[in-house]
Design goal:
13 helices, Rossmann fold, alpha/beta
């Protein structure tokens, strides 16, 4: 089964990371994978880097373009050389009206056989501009890189954290506000709490550490080992975001056994579950009055404070949730499971001639992808 993947390949972006994980999972499945990158940023895993040396040999059984909605577009050549061609994308707002390339969207995507979307919010937004199938399937992550760790949940300090490109959409200042107010409202009890913000985009100045008690801003470039050790030292990851397709750091953190408080909206709502995480309340708002129908989530600061204080006070509960999160997120969000679900979605949403053919080809080339054996 020959599969061509198109989009950015980079460990430093959501789409780029997803394509790396998708390529590796498809190779484990047994597919013959080819790459058509629009951007490449090292370091790439060696097995993925080697795919860059393969000459493209059409035709392909499946073409997957995994990019931002503004870059979704299939050329005549790509369409002609692929039996089945799908896009795969996400969007953080309730519709596409605020996207700068919304006017060209319908024309760019009309020749895809289907567009896979990360969540129902994206599906609703795309459905206004695309008439084909819109199966919902969120991208995965690689849990083998983030094994569960034994935390000390009852040490004197308690670590809250945020990780990623912490610009305004991610809500870092909401987290800072909630943290600071708790410090002032419970000065003795909440004194052991720390808030660590790991980012590499401008906006969070290290001088803030002088104004807020036990706030740390980390701008260093970290490898995965350093990031894993950072995760292991923290207890609760905060994600008061306006909207996400998935939130990779949240999945990684839960894989290590940490617990997450996250806005219960869009992509994060697909994996948030009260049994192993803490869904955060929000209000829908239109950020730009030029686009009054384009809503995002405004996380509730008071609810964030309530949940942070609850986790801080109920550490045994948080520990058990973190343990369950590690098991559930690992089982349901690993890329091997996502690839299997992808072929199943295509089988059920494409016309039978195409969907059943792809499913049959996938089963024929499938290798042993039992995830539990590799995690050990």
């Amino acid at each position: 089964m020959k599969i061509l993947l198109s989009g950015p390949f980079s460990p430093f972006s959501g789409y780029g990371n997803d394509l790396i994980g998708l390529a590796r999972a498809l190779m484990r499945w047994g597919a013959d994978v080819y790459l058509q990158p629009n951007a490449v940023q090292p370091p790439l895993p060696q097995d993925v880097a080697m795919l860059l040396t393969k000459e493209l040999e059409a035709p392909f059984d499946l073409f997957i373009q995994h990019v931002d909605p503004g870059a979704l577009e299939i050329t005549e050549s790509e369409r002609r050389s692929s039996t089945v061609a799908i896009g795969w994308s996400m969007w953080e707002w309730s519709d596409l009206s605020a996207h700068p390339d919304v006017k060209t969207f319908r024309e760019r995507v009309e020749d895809f056989d289907a567009i896979v979307v990360y969540d129902q919010i994206t599906r609703d937004g795309f459905a206004e501009h695309y008439d084909g199938p819109l199966p919902i399937l969120q991208g995965g992550f690689q849990p083998e890189e983030w094994p569960e760790v034994e935390r000390d949940w009852h040490e004197e300090r308690f670590g809250f954290c945020m990780v990623g490109q912490l610009h305004a959409r991610k809500g870092p200042f909401i987290a800072i506000q909630a943290f600071n107010e708790l410090k002032h409202e419970y000065p003795e009890e909440f004194a052991p709490a720390e808030l660590h913000l790991k980012t590499h985009v401008p906006g969070l100045h290290s001088a803030m550490e002088k104004s807020y008690d036990k706030l740390r801003v980390h701008y260093e470039n970290w490898n995965k080992e350093t990031l894993y050790n950072f995760y292991a030292a923290q207890h609760c990851l905060l994600a008061p975001s306006k909207g996400e397709g998935k939130n990779m750091p949240a999945l990684e953190f839960q894989s290590t056994g940490g617990v997450v408080i996250a806005t219960n909206w869009a992509g994060m709502a697909t994996w948030l579950d009260p049994s192993f995480s803490y869904p955060l309340d929000y209000k829908l708002v239109a950020e730009d009055q030029k686009f009054p129908t384009s809503y995002c989530a405004a996380a509730d600061v008071e609810d964030l404070k309530r949940l942070m204080l609850h986790v801080f006070r109920n550490r045994n509960e948080a520990k058990e949730k973190g343990k369950l999160a590690s098991a559930m997120i690992t089982a349901t969000k690993n890329w091997d499971k996502v690839v299997e679900d992808l072929f199943l979605r295509l089988k059920n949403t494409l016309p039978p001639a195409a969907g059943s053919l792809l499913w049959s080809q996938a089963q024929q080339c499938r290798k042993d992808t039992s995830y539990g054996s590799r995690r050990d």
